[in-house]
């Protein structure tokens, strides 16, 4: 893990759920779920929480993780992209003489992960890979149940095909936002949405939950209290 920088991005602003990243989920700040996951396999000195918010910095420090810099306001707006935030962190560490070959990006809005997720993703990664990313199997298929509006205003299937049953359609996946294992060399050449050498790691539906709304929050709380994790 010494060659991997763990980045946990946590912006202070949140419209759907105010102060979401430090709101208590079953008695624990949401961001701590990602920090605790990272600490299972990484040293605290290799974990970077990048944030613009003093309140988040205080919460993170209470978990025993140092926050080496405060993210500039120019990288904390609604329009700020993940790529710029990642490269800002990478360049900061290179500036203090710490060079890594990989970035492990953990979104704090995905609280449910298993420790073996990282190890299995690491096994999929090699020097010819841009990224290994966690995905879920989509229950909506562009060959069958996803539609777009055409120029005449009528709906047509997003992807052409002659499938009569959903079960016959090719399997499709979505990035669940939980774990991204990326090559820093690749990041220096292009943003991650331009990566072409991408491998998937499929997670069960339960571990694909991404908190974006009060309903998502309620679902996660209910799951934790049920004890099924």
Automatic annotation (TrEMBL):
Gene3D superfamilies: Spore Coat Polysaccharide Biosynthesis Protein SpsA, Chain A (3.90.550.10). GO terms for molecular function: N-acylneuraminate cytidylyltransferase activity. InterPro entries: CMP-NeuNAc_synthase (IPR050793), Cytidylyl_trans (IPR003329), Nucleotide-diphossugar_trans (IPR029044). Pfam families: CTP_transf_3 (PF02348). CDD domains: CMP-NeuAc_Synthase. Signal peptide: none annotated. The keyword Nucleotidyltransferase applies. Coiled coil: none annotated. Keywords: Nucleotidyltransferase, Transferase. This is Acylneuraminate cytidylyltransferase family protein. It comes from Arcticibacter tournemirensis.
